[in-house]
Description:
- The chain has helices at residues 3-20, 79-87, 91-105, 111-126, 130-143, 150-163, 167-181, 189-208, 212-224, 230-246, 250-263, 270-281; strands at 28-32, 39-46, 50-54, 60-64, 68-72.
- With 284 residues, the protein is of the alpha+beta class.
- The chain has 3 domains: 3-72, SH3 type barrels (Roll), CATH 2.30.30; 75-127, no CATH class; 148-281, Serine Threonine Protein Phosphatase 5, Tetratricopeptide repeat (Alpha Horseshoe).
Amino acid sequence: MHPVRRLQLLAMVIVAQTLIMPGLPAAEKIFVKGNSTPTVGTITKVDDNAVYIDLSGVGGTSLQRAKIERVEIPRPADLAAGLKASKDGKFADAVKTLEPYHVKYRGLPEPWVEEATARLGDSYLAVKDWAKARDLFLGMRKFYPQSEFKDLMTSGLAQALYGMSKPEDALKLLEPMVLEREKDESVGDEQNRALGKAYVTLGRCYAASKNNDQALNAFLSTTTIYYKDPVATSEALYESALVFEKMENLPRAKGQLEDYMRDFPGGPLAADAKKKLDSLNAVK
Length: 284
Protein backbone atom coordinates (compact mmCIF):
# COMPACT_ATOMS: atom_id res chain seq x y z
CA MET A 1 0.00 0.00 0.00
CA HIS A 2 1.23 3.50 -0.81
CA PRO A 3 2.62 5.19 2.36
CA VAL A 4 0.40 8.27 2.00
CA ARG A 5 -2.73 6.10 1.63
CA ARG A 6 -1.64 4.09 4.68
CA LEU A 7 -1.39 7.28 6.77
CA GLN A 8 -4.80 8.43 5.56
CA LEU A 9 -6.39 5.13 6.58
CA LEU A 10 -4.68 5.21 9.97
CA ALA A 11 -5.92 8.77 10.52
CA MET A 12 -9.48 7.64 9.71
CA VAL A 13 -9.17 4.83 12.27
CA ILE A 14 -8.07 7.24 14.99
CA VAL A 15 -10.84 9.72 14.22
CA ALA A 16 -13.33 6.87 14.44
CA GLN A 17 -11.85 5.72 17.76
CA THR A 18 -12.15 9.25 19.13
CA LEU A 19 -15.81 9.45 18.10
CA ILE A 20 -16.61 6.07 19.61
CA MET A 21 -14.71 6.64 22.85
CA PRO A 22 -15.18 10.31 23.76
CA GLY A 23 -13.17 9.85 26.95
CA LEU A 24 -9.94 9.78 24.95
CA PRO A 25 -7.77 12.93 25.04
CA ALA A 26 -8.22 15.38 22.15
CA ALA A 27 -6.21 14.34 19.11
CA GLU A 28 -3.26 16.29 17.72
CA LYS A 29 -3.33 16.95 13.98
CA ILE A 30 -0.38 17.53 11.70
CA PHE A 31 -0.97 18.90 8.21
CA VAL A 32 1.71 18.50 5.55
CA LYS A 33 2.06 20.73 2.53
CA GLY A 34 -0.17 19.78 -0.37
CA ASN A 35 -2.41 17.44 1.65
CA SER A 36 -5.60 18.59 3.36
CA THR A 37 -5.96 15.31 5.29
CA PRO A 38 -4.04 15.49 8.58
CA THR A 39 -2.06 12.84 10.36
CA VAL A 40 -3.94 12.37 13.64
CA GLY A 41 -2.44 10.97 16.81
CA THR A 42 -0.23 11.98 19.73
CA ILE A 43 3.08 13.72 19.23
CA THR A 44 5.66 11.86 21.30
CA LYS A 45 8.89 13.61 20.35
CA VAL A 46 10.38 16.29 18.11
CA ASP A 47 13.91 16.98 16.95
CA ASP A 48 15.43 19.43 14.49
CA ASN A 49 14.40 17.34 11.50
CA ALA A 50 11.26 15.38 12.32
CA VAL A 51 8.11 15.02 14.39
CA TYR A 52 7.27 11.59 15.81
CA ILE A 53 3.64 10.56 16.23
CA ASP A 54 1.95 7.69 18.06
CA LEU A 55 -1.12 6.56 16.11
CA SER A 56 -3.04 5.38 19.16
CA GLY A 57 -2.41 1.66 19.16
CA VAL A 58 -2.12 1.15 15.40
CA GLY A 59 1.54 2.01 15.04
CA GLY A 60 3.66 5.10 14.78
CA THR A 61 5.13 7.34 12.14
CA SER A 62 7.32 10.39 11.68
CA LEU A 63 7.04 13.45 9.47
CA GLN A 64 9.82 15.69 8.23
CA ARG A 65 9.62 19.18 9.69
CA ALA A 66 10.24 20.78 6.31
CA LYS A 67 7.02 19.25 4.98
CA ILE A 68 4.78 20.34 7.86
CA GLU A 69 2.52 23.28 7.05
CA ARG A 70 0.65 23.59 10.33
CA VAL A 71 -0.46 21.65 13.39
CA GLU A 72 -3.52 21.72 15.60
CA ILE A 73 -2.71 20.95 19.22
CA PRO A 74 -5.32 21.54 21.94
CA ARG A 75 -4.27 24.14 24.51
CA PRO A 76 -3.26 22.40 27.78
CA ALA A 77 -5.43 23.13 30.79
CA ASP A 78 -2.54 24.63 32.78
CA LEU A 79 -1.14 26.79 29.97
CA ALA A 80 -2.94 29.94 31.13
CA ALA A 81 -1.47 29.52 34.61
CA GLY A 82 2.03 29.20 33.17
CA LEU A 83 1.65 32.30 31.02
CA LYS A 84 0.22 34.24 33.96
CA ALA A 85 3.11 33.16 36.19
CA SER A 86 5.55 34.61 33.66
CA LYS A 87 3.60 37.86 33.48
CA ASP A 88 3.35 38.11 37.28
CA GLY A 89 7.07 37.60 37.82
CA LYS A 90 6.74 34.07 39.23
CA PHE A 91 9.38 32.85 36.84
CA ALA A 92 10.32 29.57 38.54
CA ASP A 93 6.64 28.55 38.42
CA ALA A 94 6.45 29.58 34.77
CA VAL A 95 9.48 27.44 33.92
CA LYS A 96 8.00 24.44 35.73
CA THR A 97 4.74 24.71 33.78
CA LEU A 98 5.93 25.80 30.33
CA GLU A 99 9.16 23.85 29.91
CA PRO A 100 7.54 20.42 29.33
CA TYR A 101 5.49 21.84 26.44
CA HIS A 102 8.59 23.41 24.92
CA VAL A 103 10.40 20.08 25.08
CA LYS A 104 7.49 18.17 23.56
CA TYR A 105 6.40 20.63 20.86
CA ARG A 106 9.56 22.67 20.21
CA GLY A 107 9.29 24.85 17.14
CA LEU A 108 5.96 23.54 15.87
CA PRO A 109 3.73 25.99 13.94
CA GLU A 110 1.00 26.33 16.54
CA PRO A 111 0.34 29.85 17.94
CA TRP A 112 0.08 28.87 21.59
CA VAL A 113 3.31 26.85 21.36
CA GLU A 114 5.09 29.89 19.94
CA GLU A 115 3.76 32.18 22.68
CA ALA A 116 4.59 29.69 25.44
CA THR A 117 8.13 29.38 24.07
CA ALA A 118 8.61 33.16 24.12
CA ARG A 119 7.39 33.43 27.73
CA LEU A 120 9.55 30.48 28.76
CA GLY A 121 12.54 32.28 27.26
CA ASP A 122 11.73 35.37 29.33
CA SER A 123 11.51 33.16 32.42
CA TYR A 124 14.85 31.48 31.72
CA LEU A 125 16.44 34.93 31.53
CA ALA A 126 14.82 36.00 34.78
CA VAL A 127 16.20 32.97 36.66
CA LYS A 128 19.57 33.47 34.91
CA ASP A 129 19.57 30.13 33.11
CA TRP A 130 21.62 31.66 30.31
CA ALA A 131 22.41 28.47 28.40
CA LYS A 132 18.79 27.35 28.17
CA ALA A 133 17.72 30.87 27.19
CA ARG A 134 20.36 31.01 24.46
CA ASP A 135 19.33 27.65 23.01
CA LEU A 136 15.63 28.51 23.17
CA PHE A 137 16.00 31.84 21.36
CA LEU A 138 18.31 30.34 18.75
CA GLY A 139 15.62 27.73 18.10
CA MET A 140 12.92 30.38 17.86
CA ARG A 141 14.95 32.33 15.28
CA LYS A 142 15.23 29.12 13.26
CA PHE A 143 11.64 27.87 13.48
CA TYR A 144 9.71 31.19 13.68
CA PRO A 145 11.56 33.62 11.37
CA GLN A 146 8.44 35.77 10.79
CA SER A 147 7.25 35.73 14.40
CA GLU A 148 5.62 38.66 16.15
CA PHE A 149 8.20 37.90 18.86
CA LYS A 150 11.09 38.57 16.47
CA ASP A 151 12.51 41.46 18.51
CA LEU A 152 12.08 39.48 21.72
CA MET A 153 14.14 36.66 20.22
CA THR A 154 17.00 39.01 19.35
CA SER A 155 16.82 40.86 22.64
CA GLY A 156 16.58 37.64 24.65
CA LEU A 157 19.45 35.99 22.81
CA ALA A 158 21.62 39.08 23.36
CA GLN A 159 20.74 39.14 27.07
CA ALA A 160 21.69 35.47 27.37
CA LEU A 161 25.00 36.08 25.61
CA TYR A 162 25.75 39.02 27.89
CA GLY A 163 24.95 36.81 30.88
CA MET A 164 27.44 34.29 29.50
CA SER A 165 30.14 37.02 29.45
CA LYS A 166 29.96 37.57 25.69
CA PRO A 167 29.15 41.31 25.43
CA GLU A 168 30.75 41.66 22.00
CA ASP A 169 28.42 39.00 20.57
CA ALA A 170 25.46 40.70 22.26
CA LEU A 171 26.39 44.04 20.68
CA LYS A 172 26.55 42.47 17.22
CA LEU A 173 22.93 41.40 17.62
CA LEU A 174 21.54 44.52 19.26
CA GLU A 175 23.09 47.44 17.40
CA PRO A 176 21.57 46.58 13.98
CA MET A 177 18.19 45.86 15.56
CA VAL A 178 17.89 49.16 17.44
CA LEU A 179 19.13 51.13 14.42
CA GLU A 180 16.37 49.54 12.34
CA ARG A 181 13.69 50.17 14.98
CA GLU A 182 14.65 53.84 15.26
CA LYS A 183 13.14 54.23 11.79
CA ASP A 184 9.72 53.11 13.05
CA GLU A 185 7.34 55.90 13.98
CA SER A 186 5.57 53.68 16.48
CA VAL A 187 5.80 50.15 17.88
CA GLY A 188 3.28 47.87 19.55
CA ASP A 189 3.37 46.87 23.19
CA GLU A 190 5.15 43.58 22.50
CA GLN A 191 7.91 45.35 20.57
CA ASN A 192 8.09 48.10 23.20
CA ARG A 193 8.76 45.52 25.91
CA ALA A 194 11.37 43.74 23.80
CA LEU A 195 13.14 46.99 22.95
CA GLY A 196 13.15 48.07 26.58
CA LYS A 197 15.02 44.89 27.45
CA ALA A 198 17.29 45.30 24.44
CA TYR A 199 18.37 48.79 25.46
CA VAL A 200 19.12 47.63 29.02
CA THR A 201 21.44 44.93 27.68
CA LEU A 202 22.93 47.43 25.22
CA GLY A 203 23.58 49.85 28.07
CA ARG A 204 25.31 47.14 30.07
CA CYS A 205 27.53 46.27 27.13
CA TYR A 206 28.54 49.90 26.68
CA ALA A 207 29.07 50.38 30.41
CA ALA A 208 31.32 47.31 30.52
CA SER A 209 33.57 48.97 27.91
CA LYS A 210 33.44 52.29 29.87
CA ASN A 211 31.49 54.00 27.09
CA ASN A 212 29.40 55.99 29.55
CA ASP A 213 27.68 58.33 27.09
CA GLN A 214 26.32 55.50 24.97
CA ALA A 215 25.44 53.45 28.04
CA LEU A 216 23.45 56.36 29.45
CA ASN A 217 21.67 56.93 26.15
CA ALA A 218 20.67 53.25 26.06
CA PHE A 219 19.37 53.16 29.64
CA LEU A 220 17.43 56.40 29.17
CA SER A 221 15.85 55.02 25.99
CA THR A 222 14.24 52.37 28.18
CA THR A 223 13.10 54.75 30.92
CA THR A 224 11.64 57.36 28.56
CA ILE A 225 10.51 55.55 25.38
CA TYR A 226 10.48 51.76 25.74
CA TYR A 227 9.09 51.49 29.27
CA LYS A 228 6.32 48.90 28.93
CA ASP A 229 8.32 46.18 30.66
CA PRO A 230 8.52 47.08 34.37
CA VAL A 231 11.55 44.88 35.11
CA ALA A 232 13.57 46.46 32.29
CA THR A 233 12.47 49.96 33.29
CA SER A 234 13.42 49.45 36.94
CA GLU A 235 16.81 48.05 35.96
CA ALA A 236 17.43 50.96 33.59
CA LEU A 237 16.60 53.50 36.31
CA TYR A 238 19.04 51.94 38.75
CA GLU A 239 21.85 51.35 36.26
CA SER A 240 21.54 54.81 34.74
CA ALA A 241 22.01 56.20 38.25
CA LEU A 242 25.29 54.32 38.52
CA VAL A 243 26.44 55.78 35.19
CA PHE A 244 25.47 59.30 36.26
CA GLU A 245 27.50 58.74 39.42
CA LYS A 246 30.54 57.69 37.38
CA MET A 247 30.12 60.86 35.32
CA GLU A 248 30.01 62.85 38.59
CA ASN A 249 26.49 64.08 37.90
CA LEU A 250 25.21 63.39 41.40
CA PRO A 251 21.90 65.33 41.11
CA ARG A 252 20.84 63.19 38.16
CA ALA A 253 22.05 60.03 39.89
CA LYS A 254 19.94 60.90 42.93
CA GLY A 255 16.96 61.69 40.71
CA GLN A 256 17.08 58.28 39.02
CA LEU A 257 17.30 56.51 42.38
CA GLU A 258 14.42 58.57 43.77
CA ASP A 259 12.36 57.64 40.72
CA TYR A 260 13.19 53.99 41.36
CA MET A 261 12.10 54.18 45.00
CA ARG A 262 8.88 55.96 44.02
CA ASP A 263 7.90 53.68 41.13
CA PHE A 264 9.34 50.32 42.30
CA PRO A 265 9.42 50.38 46.12
CA GLY A 266 9.17 46.60 46.26
CA GLY A 267 11.46 45.96 43.30
CA PRO A 268 14.39 43.52 43.45
CA LEU A 269 16.88 46.40 43.48
CA ALA A 270 15.01 48.54 46.03
CA ALA A 271 17.43 47.80 48.88
CA ASP A 272 20.43 48.56 46.68
CA ALA A 273 18.79 51.74 45.38
CA LYS A 274 18.07 52.98 48.91
CA LYS A 275 21.60 52.21 50.07
CA LYS A 276 23.10 54.02 47.08
CA LEU A 277 20.76 56.99 47.51
CA ASP A 278 21.65 57.27 51.20
CA SER A 279 25.36 57.22 50.36
CA LEU A 280 24.96 59.95 47.73
CA ASN A 281 22.91 62.09 50.09
CA ALA A 282 25.74 61.79 52.62
CA VAL A 283 28.20 63.35 50.17
CA LYS A 284 28.90 66.96 51.08
